[in-house]
Amino acid sequence: MYSLQHQNAVITGASSGIGRAIAIDLAKAGVQKLHLLGRNEERLKTLVAELQVHNTSCHYNLVNLEDVETIETFCNDFTSNNTTLDILIHSAGVVHLSSLEQSDIQNLDHQYAINLRAPFLITQKLLPLVKASKGDIVFINSGAGLEAGPTWSQYAATKHGLKALADSLRSEVKKDGIRVISIYPGRTATAMQEDVYAMENRNDYDSTTLVQPEDIAKQLVTSLSMSKAAVVSDVRVRT
Questions:
Q1: Is 151 left (phi over 0), alpha (psi -120 to 50) or beta?
Q2: Under 8 Å CB-to-CB from 14, ≥6 apart: which residues?
Q3: pLDDT at 1
Q4: How far apart are CA 155 and CA 42, in angstroms?
Q5: Beta partners for 9?
Q6: What kind and span of H or E run contains 43?
Q7: How far apart are CA 223 and CA 235, in angstroms?
Q8: DSSP states of 175-238 as a string?
Q9: Structural domains in the chain?
Q10: What is the mean pLDDT of residues 142-163?
Q11: Is pTM beyond 0.90 here?
């Protein structure tokens, strides 16, 4: 097994859901420094306090992933204060459901900015640091990144794009010793999934029947802990 101790990680979407679960499991696995990106300061503060028991150094940053300038500021500051990055995890995401005929182009732009453009830009800016550590880049995708049903066209288009980004990047950086991992969760018990049920006019949301954020986190830590010669390139987790 490959040890994650003494490593540092950046996680987007860390204030809730899958991102939060990943942060907790990485701290338990001995990651030394966690840089948590999110939009909700109170939830990020709570998570940082919770992780202190694991002797992990935690820092949080409020980053609007829809704003290019804010992303670039974070990446420039991070690069100025760090020479390497062992683990870069893209977990942030947003979803809007609508038929193509009735869709709002602004919703498409919003999903594109957060689900695809932000991971592209952050990876581009921080890639030299990942190369320096021969680290790992993780994209939390979605089952919708593999297939698209009715009303999912906008969201699925951004997630299909994220798959293409990961697949191309994997080929580009293999020579640098970097592993690129895509995880495709099915319906997962998160606040975002509750919103999806509401968009679908469903009143049968039951978190116990869904994939748990902790399931995704455990799978990710397992994948990261494999020997560096082994790459779990694509993982699908579904009910």
A1: left
A2: 20, 22, 23, 34, 36, 37, 38, 44, 47, 60, 91
A3: 62
A4: 28
A5: 34, 87
A6: helix 41-51
A7: 9
A8: GGT-EEEEEEE-SBSSHHHHHHHHHTT-----GGGSB-HHHHHHHHHHHHTS-TT----EEEE-
A9: 8-237 (3.40.50.720)
A10: 97
A11: yes
